[in-house]
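Good morning N.,

You mentioned wanting to compare the apo and holo forms, so I went ahead and generated the holo version with calcium ion. This is what I fed in:
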Amino acid sequence: MKLLLGWMLLFSVSATEYNPNRLLIKADSPELIKQLKNQKRIQHLFSNWYVAYTEDVIKLESELSVLKTGLIFERDYRAQKKALPKVEISKTLPSTNNKSFFTDPKADNVWSFRDASDHGSSIDKAYQGNFASANEQIIVAVVDTGIDYNHEDLKDVMWSNPGEIPNNNIDDDNNGYVDDVHGINTLKRDDQGIPSGDMMDTHSHGSHVSGTIGAAQNNGVGIAGIASNVRLMGLRTVPNSGDELDVDVVESFIYAAKNGARIINCSFGKDRNEGGQAVKEAIDFIGKTYGTLVVAAAGNSSRDIDTRLTYPASYTSTNLLVIGSTTSNGRMSYFSNYGSKSVDLAAPGSNIYSTTPGNSYGNMSGTSMASPTAAGIAAEVLSRHPLLTPEELKEVLMKTVTKSRRMRRSMASQGRIDLFNALNSL
Ligand SMILES: [Ca+2]
Ligand SMILES: [Ca+2]
Ligand SMILES: [Ca+2]
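and this is what came out, ligand included:
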């Protein structure tokens, strides 16, 4: 009986594992693919990658396979629900024994701010350190379920597209997206396939991730985000089911980097080894072209992703920083993936207190929460040292971790990210 159920689940998953109306194509000549009979419309993504919209992806593939031109094409694969980093709402807060540097009424609840000796990331200590530095505003893109941009502790730190007039139904800055004020929503597209400009969070995952990175500090409400001078750009790409598609991920990465995001947080992933070349090449492209660092969750399957790959965490891109999760006791979170090659460092991810939609706050656990802790720290370091390349920033963060015997074989850096150490090293 159990076996049958397992097979049935597998069968239903395989039937919906890609979008039957889109195909990713890498081609030197767009003219060639525009002539294909089974395409309805071709959209450029980046470099020589395109997405073809089609009534029948199978027919389009057979048309392409007879063209002997070295074309690469791959299906628009889904992540699959079961691969979404788990979110656990826990009611009890971990006890805090130190008072935060920040005056926000709920700031004491964010345990990652504690010193390394207390298993945190030395964030309070870094702010008390008064390091002389620049203070450049850093745009951080949150590729997730959207952001509650009206939240009391997020509204003042939202990125706003300077050339776009809100709600006039016109693409004022002529970037291809209508009313894209704080980002785009790749899950809601018009009949031409163009994403909507409203990426309001309808889940809570993306808003929680966002607060960890950059909730307004010392504004009299809520918590303090880790980074002091960020603007948060929202890309609604992950459906509430967690079943995101490669085309949407690529389009979000390109939008974010083109519009100035120097850090992209990816608290999502898939655990299948199919397709994904376009996503990998998009990460490489935005690193080289725009100097963007991509910070990604290692995933929550409690497994070694050096041997069982997960995407995007297992990609080898030099501008990709992959994050495992730790608890307030200094242990690896039980759910966290690991891998001495694929996982770069650990960050607090269990029982993380942050913003949730509707001016609310709550605890969640997952590598989904560890990734924005690291992204917030990366943003703070970059804000003070804005000339760092993504590779240099990654190296600084990895070299200055608090090493732990427990992470000796599970992380490339063998430790937990530390803001004080990072700033102190520069
Ligand atoms: Ca626009
Ligand atoms: Ca407009
Ligand atoms: Ca606040």
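The longest strand covers residues 18-26.

Happy to go through it together on a call whenever suits you.

Best,
F.
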